[in-house]
Structure formats: C-alpha cells, structure tokens
C-alpha cells in the first residue's frame, strides 16, 4: 500500500533514522547533543526518548573519540551512526576516519566490516561563524576505502540514510544544512516503496542545450538556473550526482554526449576538488562530443568568509547562468 508523506529533508532524515532503528536493534546513534536536545538541527529529535540512552548516546565534545568509539562498536557487530555537529568540527576525527575506519576492511582482507555512517551537515547559507559553513567533501572523497554521498531532497534523505546504515562499508553522509527545514523543498515521499538505487547519479531535469551537474545544496541552485534559462529559450539538463565517491559519471557522460556542454556547480573551492575530477573525466571520455570547455561554478579558493559576505562567495543563480552563456557562446 502506498504511504505518501510530505516531508522536509530534516523530517525525512529523522523518519529514516527511526525506521532503521526499529528494524535493527544494532543501530546506534551517537554524537554531541543528539539525545536530549535532538541535535542542533533537531534531526534526531525524539529518538532518545523512544529508544533510550543506550541506543542514542550524547557524547563528549570529542570527534576523535566519537569516531574511535564507532570503530570499536562496529568491530563488535553494531551499526553506529555518528553525527558531526558541523562539518568544520570533523577534523579532530580525520585520523580515525582515514587511518582506521577506511582501512580496516582492506587490512583484514574482509574479515572485519565497518558499517559506520558519519552524518555531516555541510555547506553555507545559514549566517554562521567560522568552521560552521565549510565544504570538505573533496578531502574525504580522496580517501580509498570510504564511500561519500550527499543528498539534496527529502526522498533521497529518507531512503539514503537507511541504505547507508545497511551498508557494511563506512559512509560519509553529507547533508545540506541550509535546506534541512525549507518548506519550499517539501516533497511527497512514498515511504512504502524503496527505490532501486539511491547512491547513483540521477537526471532531475531533462534538457538539450547544456548539462549542469551538481550535488547537495547546489542542486537547488542548478534547478533554479534551469527554470530561469528556459524563459530565455535555453534547455538545461540537471544531474544530481548523489554519490561523490565512487563517482557515478555514466549518466553525466551520456548527457554531455547529447548536449555537448557541461557546467559543474559546487560550494567547495575549485582547486583539487570534485568539480576538477568531473571536468577531467568528462574531457577524457567525451572529448569529441564537447562543443566548449567544461566550466565550473564554485566557491572561491579562500577560507569561508564571514556571514555578511557569504552571498558573494556561494554559487548563485547569476553565476550559473553566466557560465551557461559563456559555454553557449563558445
């Protein structure tokens, strides 16, 4: 029976976590203020009340301890879901993530699995202070042994968090924090029918003039650009990557062979980034189909600015449309 619920991304994550905990008593949630407070963004609201303090654990302010404890729990057969309060706080746990979490499955020739999910609210747009608006996903996408994904809508949030928890591989699950509670992004989610593949690139809007690829919070910007471009007679195909490592670029190659043009959009700085890899791979695989160079619309190669300046830092509608115009004019 179809069960449609109109959900924000934040509510979809909450319900997805709840369903995973109901289905598997080995699923634990741990992090700073995830219990009584329900997380600073209220994503885990009500879970400690319903599942108890033994399964929803408020931890000390120590990311290295959170990740290290999750590694030990995974060795003992649990499925920990760790929340990093803000993406800029993840770096004290970088050693545990890169040296232990990402390597144990390989190091033990598959004998030890690492079913650990690290939830990471990321990106800007919330008017926050330093270390609260960054986009470090490229760093983790470079680490062999990790899967890195990002969601942009409620359906992918609901089903994606469950798929991540069921995985025996460690997954960094990047969530666009500025979109958590956006009423404009509420969508009907069929919680009774699971999609076949959540962690794969997905064409969210078809078009013929140029391809725009994005992920996380940038998907909303790309879709807004496609709507604006349509009024000018330009047809943009928008692709949501969803999986950042390993990249699923098959649908991107197929689209570029059709449109002949690609614009890659991301809030992260451009140098040595995911958009760099996308540009290189598309040039390698689709060289004879390209009608113009691959263009990128990204954050700047600077530390994230103070809140009053972030609107000038983040890729927006005008910057994406300018890139489209440059591509079409080539």
Automatic annotation (TrEMBL):
Q: Which Pfam families does this entry report, sorted A to Z?
A: Transket_pyr, Transketolase_C
Q: Which UniProt keywords apply?
A: Oxidoreductase, Pyruvate, Thiamine pyrophosphate
Q: What Gene3D superfamilies has UniProt attached to this entry? A: 3.40.50.920, 3.40.50.970
> Which SUPFAM superfamilies is this protein grouped with?
Thiamin diphosphate-binding fold (THDP-binding), TK C-terminal domain-like
GO molecular function annotation: magnesium ion binding; oxidoreductase activity
| InterPro entries to which the protein is assigned, alphabetical | THDP-binding, Transketo_C/PFOR_II, Transketolase-like_Pyr-bd, Transketolase_C
Cofactor(s) for this protein? thiamine diphosphate
Transketolase-like pyrimidine-binding domain segment(s):
7-182
Protein name (database record): Pyruvate dehydrogenase E1 component beta subunit
In its UniProt entry, the species of origin is given as Amycolatopsis echigonensis
């Amino acid at each position: 029976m179809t069960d449609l619920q109109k959900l924000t991304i934040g509510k979809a994550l909450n319900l997805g976590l709840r369903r995973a905990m109901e289905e598997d008593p080995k699923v634990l949630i741990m992090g700073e203020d995830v219990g009584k407070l329900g997380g600073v963004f209220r994503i885990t609201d009500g879970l400690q009340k319903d599942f108890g303090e033994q399964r929803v654990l408020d931890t000390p302010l120590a990311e290295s301890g959170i990740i290290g404890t999750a590694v030990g729990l995974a060795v003992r057969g649990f499925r920990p879901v760790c929340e990093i309060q803000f993406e800029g706080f993840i770096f004290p746990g970088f050693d545990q993530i890169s040296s232990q979490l990402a390597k144990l499955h390989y190091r033990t020739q598959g004998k030890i699995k690492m079913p650990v999910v690290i939830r990471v609210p990321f990106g800007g747009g919330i008017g926050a202070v330093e270390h609260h608006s960054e986009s470090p996903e490229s760093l983790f996408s470079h680490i062999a042994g990790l899967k890195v994904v990002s969601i942009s809508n409620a359906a992918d949030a609901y089903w994606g968090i469950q798929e991540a928890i069921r995985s025996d591989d460690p997954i960094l699950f990047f969530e666009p924090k500025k979109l958590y509670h956006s009423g404009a992004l509420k969508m009907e989610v069929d919680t009774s029918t699971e999609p076949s593949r959540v962690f794969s690139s997905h064409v969210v809007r078809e078009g013929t003039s140029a391809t725009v690829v994005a992920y996380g919070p940038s998907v909303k910007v790309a879709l807004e650009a496609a709507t604006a471009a349509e009024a000018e007679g330009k047809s943009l195909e928008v692709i949501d990557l969803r999986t950042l490592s390993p990249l699923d670029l098959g649908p991107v190659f197929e689209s570029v062979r059709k449109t002949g043009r690609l614009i890659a959009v991301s809030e992260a700085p451009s140098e040595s980034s995911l958009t760099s890899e996308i540009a290189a791979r598309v040039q390698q695989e689709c060289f004879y189909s390209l009608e113009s160079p691959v263009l990128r619309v990204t954050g700047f190669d600077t530390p994230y600015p103070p809140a009053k300046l972030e609107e000038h830092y983040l890729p927006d509608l005008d910057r994406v449309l300018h890139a489209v115009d440059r591509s079409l004019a080539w």
